[in-house]
Every structure is written in C-alpha cells, then in structure tokens.
Design goal:
The complex is a heterodimer of chains A (about 290) and B (about 240). Chain A is mainly α. Helices cover about 75% and strands about 0% of the residues of chain A. In chain A, α1 runs parallel beside α5 (about 135-160) and α3 packs across α8. Chain A is globular and about 60 Å long. The relative contact order of chain A is 0.20. Chain B has a single domain, classed as P-loop containing nucleotide triphosphate hydrolases (Rossmann fold), CATH 3.40.50.300. Chain B has ten helices and ten strands. Chain B has helices at about 45-50, 70-75, 95-100, 110-120, 125-130, 140-150, 170-185, 195-205, 220-225, 230-235, and strands at about 5-15, 15-25, 30-35, 55-60, 65, 80-85, 155-160, 190-195, 205-210, 215-220. In chain B, strands 6-7-8-3-9-10 form a six-stranded mixed sheet, sandwiched between helices. In chain B, α3 packs parallel to α6 (about 140-150). The chains are: A mainly alpha (about 290), B alpha/beta (about 240). The interface between A and B is medium-sized, with 19 and 26 residues.
C-alpha cells in the first residue's frame, strides 16, 4: 500500500513539472497557434546556467532567481530577434525555426557544458530521503514551487492590466491593436514567461533525472501530452493534464508495462487524445455566432 | 476652423491590389461624417486606412500630425477609436474586461473606473451582464459594448464601421439615437461607414459617397439626401 501511494504522490510531483512544461507550450500556442518544440531544450539550457552559477559558488536560491530572470529576458530576445521576422509566415516556416532553435540550444549546451551527466542539487535536502513513506522532500518541495509558479501566473493573467492585455492580444490581435496594445511585445512577453516557467521546471526536474543536454527530451513529450490532454488552449487544463499524465505514467510504469516503456505512455496519450478527443478534456470547441 | 482629419491623395492597398485611389476628404471637429457607397466601394478600407491597418500612401493628417506609416497602436494612442466591422469585441473576455481594455492606454485609473460606471448607467443591459463573456451577448448588446469600449479611450475621433449591420430595426434605431447623443453630449467627432444610406444621412452633418475607391460626391448631408442620383441609387425612392 505504501509503495502504491508513493507511486501516486511521486506521480503528482512529476505531474507538476509536466504541467508547467505543458503550460509553457499552451502560452505560446494561445498567442501564436504554434507549438514551440524548443521549449524543452531552452529549459535545459537555463538549467545549465543555474548549474554553472551554483558551481561558481552562488547560493542555490540566488542562482535560481537569476536563472529565471535570465531565461525571461532570453525568451523575450529570442521572440524579438528570431521569431518576429517570421511572425506572418506559414506554420511550416515557424516549425522549422522551432526545430532550428531546438538543435541550436541542444548543441550549445553540449558544446559549452559538455555531454557528461551532471548531478544538480536540490534545495530540499537529498533526493530519495523520505520524509514520509510516500514522498521525498524534493518531491514535496518541487511540487510546492511549481504550484507557486502556477498560482503567480494565474494571478498575473487574472488581475494585472498587462496580463489582461496579453489575453486580449492572444484572443483577438486586431482588436487588441485597436485599443492600443502593442501586440508584438505581448507575444515577446509570452515567450519570456514561457522560458521562465521552463527554467523553473528544468531546475526542479534536474535533481531527479540528472542534468545533460538531452534532459528535457522525454519531459517535453510528457508536457506535450499534458497540454493536449487538458486541451491545448486551456492553461488550467494543461496543469490537470500534467497531474493525470504524471500519475498514469508512474502507475503504468510500476505495475503494468515496466519502466522501460514509460515514455510510450506519453505517446499513446498524444495519439489517443488527437484521435478520440482532439480538443482535450477541458479544451473548448470554438463555437461562434454567425 | 482647422480640420480634425484631413486626407489628401490617400491611396490604400491590400497586397498588390489598390483599393483606394487618391481620395480627398476632411472631418470637422465635433461633427458626424458619413461615408456611403455600395459593396466594395472602399468604405471599410477608408476606416482601416485611417487606423493604418492597411498599407497606405498619400497624406493623412490628424490634428496636424501625419498618420501614414504609423503603427495602428500609435494612431489609437493619439485618440482615434475604431469600432471595426464584426464589432471586434473580445468574445472570451468578460464585459467588464472589454471595457477595461478600451481604456488600456489611459493612465488615470480612478477616472477609468468612473467611466466604466458611467457606461453602465448609459447601458443598463451591459451592467446586468458585466461578468458575462462578451461572446454570449446578443448582437445589439455586442454593438453597444463595442461602441462603449471605443469610448473608453475618450477618443477625439470615433470610427464606426456599419453599426447597423445584422441588427433588428428597433435596435438599429436605438444605437443611432445613442450615437447622436454621444456626439451632442460628449462632443466626440465621428466617421460612420454605413450601407443604410438614409439612416446615415439623417445622423450625419456631412457625407461622402465612394464609388470603386474614389470620391464620387461630397457635401452637407442635407444636400446629398436631395441629390437625384443618390436618391435613386442608394435611398431607393
């Protein structure tokens, strides 16, 4: 029973991370209707920055917040410099740019920080040290951090004028311009936020999976499954989707298909959602008055 | 009296296709001006050209400042509000949020809150639905919301694209009554594009008739109404 509960709780902890990766995808999807395939590699690169800062003697939380800030600015700059020129181009052009970014970040991480697997510290005591039979300190800590991020994001979009402007720009760019919103900058803000969320997810997952340039490859797939399952246009759905994916992955991995096949859970969920319920569990079908 | 908006040799293009050909027009401050014309005459494009939502060339001065080449959001920030065709409300956001967005570029938060309350006094139907998604409103309510949102900017010039489109005659009459009231009470200048020529001519002080992207006729609304050819082609009697 304890083992079963442990699987569920660690699934929920992983789910927080998948959910936030999914959330990063949803944010960019809502604004541009594109899936940012480079989301994972950007997060990995951010984690390497944090690792380098910690290696050079920075305290963990200082490195954490500086990394989040750097990631936000980097996301903003990437949108301004690399994506803005292709803003109005066909989807395929954008997909190629995303794949280009993915390869660039992956190779840069390998080139600068090499491909050896590195351990990444957890701010919440040692990994595997159980505070209860069901979950480790890091699982609890990272889940709390991710929930704090989600809550902050919710408050930002719900209660601040800029958050409202970003929602407006995503929903109806033409009308947003007509009330004076600088839509292109709102997209850049979205990229910045997505990169910042990704960096937190990267730093929270690194102590578990260890840090190497391909760290987020599988996690991006889980995040994608979470976003699709929850409904690709629904931020709350992505989070709930993340929990579902995390728990399913753990339970199926532990009791049914074995750990080697865990990643295929994500793929089955992606294909299953797209064929059976393309709008996801919480996505809304767009119905408009004619 | 100096002009509020003055266009000289204004041209507009959709990609390689030219839609407006050297049109000249001007708006007097405090007045309502109507643009009439058949489908495809370039009425909507004229409004889009003012807001720089289409590629334009020529001369377009708003209170003496050149608009050609400016970004749409900067034209808006100068005090030009636009109620586009299809109304352009943010359908998934609440009525309240729509109104707040209308005042996005204004810094005076207390005044904005007061303007929102004033809007609700003017449109009790919107007040009842303030937390409802804009997309769930009826067509007339959405049009009222679109106009209210534009007014939240406290614009010097309000552009209205077919405010009567798709609405029942009673609602149309109400909307036009409200537009006149806004013009008289708040002194907002308006440029109205309308298919319904007789409605527009009753409301406006001045009118322009567009035909295939050129100004065919212009003058005081009273004169245009009496013009033989306009009467036969657009008023239908």
């Amino acid at each position: 029973m304890d083992a079963f509960l442990h699987q569920i709780f660690s699934g929920l902890a992983n789910g927080c991370i998948y959910g936030s990766v999914g959330l990063g995808l949803v944010m960019i999807y809502q604004a541009t209707h594109h899936i940012n395939f480079a989301q994972g590699e950007m997060a990995t690169f951010s984690t390497f920055i944090a690792w380098a800062l910690i290696q050079s003697g920075w305290p963990y939380w200082a490195a954490f917040f500086v990394t989040v800030a750097i990631s936000f600015i980097a996301g903003l700059v990437i949108q301004r410099i690399i994506l803005r020129p292709v803003e109005k181009s066909p989807v395929l052009t954008n997909v190629i740019v995303f794949i280009g970014l993915l390869v660039i970040f992956n190779s840069m991480a390998g080139w600068i920080f090499d491909h050896t697997i590195k351990s990444f510290p957890s701010p919440f005591a040692q990994k595997g040290m159980l505070v209860t039979p069901w979950f480790s300190a890091h699982e609890v800590g990272s889940a709390l951090v991710m929930l704090a991020v989600l809550f902050a994001l919710y408050a930002f979009f719900r209660f601040t004028p800029i958050g409202l402007a970003m929602r407006a720009a995503a929903q109806n760019p033409d009308s947003a311009r007509l009330v004076g919103i600088r839509v292109s900058w709102m997209l850049a803000m979205g990229w910045g936020l997505a990169a910042a969320i990704g960096s937190v997810a990267g730093m929270m997952v690194a102590p578990v999976v260890f840090l190497d340039p391909n760290m987020m490859g599988g996690i991006l797939l889980y995040g994608f499954a979470a976003a699709l399952l929850g409904g690709i246009d629904n931020p709350g759905g992505a989070v709930i989707g993340g929990f579902i994916v995390g728990v399913l992955e753990n339970l199926l991995g532990a009791y049914v298909i074995g750990t080697e096949l865990k990643l295929s859970v994500a793929l089955v969920l992606i294909v299953g959602t797209l064929t059976l319920k393309p709008d996801g569990l919480f996505g809304k079908q767009v119905v408009t008055r004619v | 009296m100096s002009k509020l908006l003055e266009a000289r040799k204004l041209c507009a293009y959709y990609g390689p296709t030219q839609v407006l050909f050297d049109i000249d027009f001007s708006l007097e401050p405090g007045q309502i001006t109507a643009i009439l014309g058949a489908n495809g005459a370039g009425k909507t494009t004229t409004l889009r050209a003012i807001c720089q939502m289409v590629r334009t060339s020529g001369n377009l001065e708003f209170s003496g400042q050149q608009l050609v080449g400016k970004a749409t959001e900067n034209v808006v920030r100068m005090g030009v509000a636009h109620v586009p065709d299809g109304r352009g409300t943010f359908t998934s956001l609440s009525v309240d949020d729509n109104l707040k967005l209308g005042a996005y570029v204004r810094g005076d938060r207390a005044e904005v809150a007061r303007d929102i309350e004033r809007t609700y006094e003017r449109f009790p139907r919107l007040a009842e639905r303030r937390n409802q998604q804009a997309g769930t409103l009826s067509g007339g309510e959405q049009q009222m919301l679109a106009i209210s949102r534009a007014l939240m900017l406290r614009p010097k010039l309000l552009l209205l694209d077919e405010p009567s489109f798709g609405l029942a005659p009673l609602i149309v009459a109400e909307i036009f009554r409200i537009m006149r009231k806004i013009n008289e009470e708040d002194g907002v200048s308006m440029l109205v594009v309308e298919q319904n020529a007789s409605l527009a001519l009753d409301l406006a002080h001045h009118a322009y008739l567009l035909e295939t992207g050129r100004v065919a006729l212009s003058g005081p609304a009273e004169d245009i109404k009496r013009d033989e050819s306009v009467r036969r082609a657009y008023l239908g009697y």
